[in-house]
């Protein structure tokens, strides 16, 4: 019997104390694996002096979690280097922050080879393979080199950049060509798919068919749009839990009647946090009557702290929040509460529910699950308002949000004022449109959409 094999940079265990803090992706992948049993393979997050390829196996029901340790140099070059200093900024249109180093690229290819040789013995003859994200683009090619003829799928969680930007990456062509070793390649939105097709057509001379078939030489792949969702049902339930109600009440009490505007983001320059703080300050200045009636809670746990640009954005936000608070605070009011820590899912759901407005204003984002979680956590009888960047992948689905250009402080400031004064009838109407989409196109819909396309791909090749 065949088993699904999921491969991603990191894996998350459903056991132990961290299990309840997991994001939607981990839950979805566990769900996908549990359906028919399978293997989830990735880096353990640990390092070892010399790479051995020894697999650590954890079995939970029919799901095997398999991890491997990497060398410190691997982590520097592959993870902190090529993945997070080259590909991440470039794919988020930040050439100014992108670093190109041969060592990074060498480490990236080496780790992809190491992943391939390590996971190879775990792959059975008919097993479909599902590879995730920008860390592992060339993994399909490495697996084919080892004789793997199975159905191979790849899903990109982040945006695909415009061709002119992608072409600033020194080895862009072999990187993109390696995607043609998969059978199905999935993107979050039509825009990212179109950008990929543009490159494939103009730069590689691939033939783009009507139904997502893209042919390059002897290989035809299927390129699809599969926007990731959340487990809406689980999140709606979490928002009604005791823990969520406690968090909501605690926040309400501390706000002493003020309307709460919430932002929840990994501390990352793509999330547009300095621009968001500046927009909020613009709101305070343009709407002085509303000053003192609101407070903004920005939750931003630090990430990728080994990367200098991440240390820089953290320092910038520390300075900006301090200056805005110093300038506008009163003896009983601080305009921004800026918190650098993570929260368990249920507590987070309660925080979302307490907030009258959510500011989700990334400058570029593959999807953005926070926008969907905020909507799912609302009280259906008295829902809050989602302000969403037009540059988040989620904007293609969540058209009932207040859509804004995050670069325009005036536009975002006006949207905040609009959201705060929005009548309940309009809030409810917009929320219904949003939640209907979030429930329909949830994380299980996403999984089935992708795996369905993979199952329909032409029969596996034989070596
Ligand atoms: P991220 O860039 O990490 O994901 P996002 O989609 O918003 O962005 O997901 C973040 C997750 O982390 C959410 O589930 C959120 O609840 C959680 N989180 C954030 N701050 C938290 C906190 N303080 N405490 C607890 N949980 C917190 C990447 C891409 C996105 C894409 C996803 C999934 O960049 O565009 O939507 O993958 O494909």
Mind explaining what this structure looks like?
The protein is an alpha/beta fold and 463 residues long. It has 2 domains: 4-229 and 444-455, Glycogen Phosphorylase B (Rossmann fold, 3-Layer(aba) Sandwich), CATH 3.40.50; 232-440, 3-Layer(aba) Sandwich (Rossmann fold), CATH 3.40.50.2000. 43% of the residues lie in helices and 18% in strands. The longest helix is centred in the C-terminal third of the chain and has 21 residues, at 308-328.
Brief synopsis:
With 463 residues, the chain is of the alpha/beta class. The protein contains 16 helices and 16 strands.
Which terms would index this structure?
463 residues, Rossmann fold, six-stranded parallel β-sheet, binds adenosine-5'-diphosphate-glucose, alpha/beta
Q: How many structural domains?
A: 2
Strand order of the largest sheet: 3-4-2-1-5-6-7-10-9-8
Q: In CATH, what is the class of the largest domain?
A: Alpha Beta
Mean pLDDT: 94
The end-to-end distance, rounded to whole angstroms, is 21 Å
CATH fold-level assignment of the largest domain: Rossmann fold
**Helix- and strand-based class?**
alpha/beta
Shape: globular
Radius of gyration: 23 Å
Which architecture name of the largest domain does CATH use? 3-Layer(aba) Sandwich
Task: List the ligand species.
Answer: adenosine-5'-diphosphate-glucose
Q: How many helix segments?
A: 16
Break the fold down into its secondary structure elements and pairings.
Layout (H helix, E strand, L loop, with lengths): L3 E7 L13 H13 L1 E10 L7 E6 L2 E8 L1 H20 L10 H18 L9 E4 L6 H7 L6 E4 L7 H4 L5 H7 L5 E4 L2 H13 L4 E2 L4 E4 L2 E7 L6 H8 L2 H14 L3 E6 L8 H14 L7 E6 L8 H21 L7 E4 L5 H10 L2 E4 L8 H8 L8 E5 L12 E3 L4 H12 L3 H17 L2 H14 L7
Parallel strand pairs: 1-2, 1-5, 2-4, 5-6, 6-7, 7-10, 11-12, 11-14, 12-13, 14-15, 15-16
Antiparallel strand pairs: 3-4, 8-9, 9-10
The structure holds adenosine-5'-diphosphate-glucose.
């Amino acid at each position: 019997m065949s088993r699904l094999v999921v491969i991603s940079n990191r894996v998350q265990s459903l056991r132990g104390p961290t299990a309840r803090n997991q994001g939607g992706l981990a839950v979805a992948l566990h769900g996908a694996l549990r359906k028919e049993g399978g293997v989830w393979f990735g880096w353990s997050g640990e390092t070892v002096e010399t790479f051995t390829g020894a697999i650590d196996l954890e079995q939970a029901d029919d799901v095997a979690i398999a991890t491997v340790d990497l060398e410190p140099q691997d982590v520097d070059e592959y993870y902190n280097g090529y993945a997070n200093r080259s590909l991440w900024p470039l794919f988020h249109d930040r050439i100014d922050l992108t670093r190109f180093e041969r060592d990074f690229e060498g480490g990236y290819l080496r780790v992809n080879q190491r992943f391939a040789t390590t996971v190879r013995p775990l792959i059975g003859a008919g097993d479909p393979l599902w590879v995730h994200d920008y860390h592992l683009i060339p993994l399909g090619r490495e697996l084919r080199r080892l004789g793997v003829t199975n159905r191979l799928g790849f899903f990109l969680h982040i945006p695909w950049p415009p061709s002119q930007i992608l072409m600033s990456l020194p080895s862009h062509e072999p990187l993109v060509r390696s995607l043609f070793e998969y059978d199905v390649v999935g993107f979050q939105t039509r825009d990212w798919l179109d950008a990929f097709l543009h490159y494939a057509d103009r730069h590689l001379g691939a033939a783009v068919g009507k139904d997502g078939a893209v042919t390059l030489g002897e290989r035809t792949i299927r390129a699809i749009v599969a926007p990731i969702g959340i487990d809406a049902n689980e999140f709606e339930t979490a928002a009604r839990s005791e823990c969520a109600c406690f968090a909501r009440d605690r926040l309400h009490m501390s706000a002493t009647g003020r309307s709460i505007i919430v932002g929840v983001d990994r501390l990352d320059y793509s999330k547009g946090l300095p621009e968001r703080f500046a927009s909020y300050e613009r709101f305070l200045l343009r709407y002085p009557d509303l000053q003192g009636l609101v407070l903004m809670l920005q939750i931003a746990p630090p990430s990728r702290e080994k990367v200098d640009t991440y240390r820089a954005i953290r320092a910038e936000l520390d300075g900006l929040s301090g200056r805005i608070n110093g300038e506008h605070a009163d003896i009983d009011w601080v305009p921004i509460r800026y918190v650098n820590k993570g929260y368990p899912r249920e507590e987070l759901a309660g925080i979302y529910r307490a907030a009258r407005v959510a500011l989700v204003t990334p400058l570029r984002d593959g999807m953005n699950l926070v926008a969907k979680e905020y909507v799912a956590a609302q009280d259906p009888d008295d829902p809050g308002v989602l302000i969403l960047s037009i540059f988040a992948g989620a904007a293609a689905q969540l058209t009932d949000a207040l859509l804004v250009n995050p670069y325009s402080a005036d536009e975002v400031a006006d949207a905040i004022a609009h959201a705060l004064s929005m009548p309940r009838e309009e809030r409810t109407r917009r929320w219904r449109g949003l939640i209907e989409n979030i429930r329909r196109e949830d994380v299980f819909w996403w999984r089935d959409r992708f795996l369905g396309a993979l199952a329909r791909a032409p029969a596996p090749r034989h070596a």
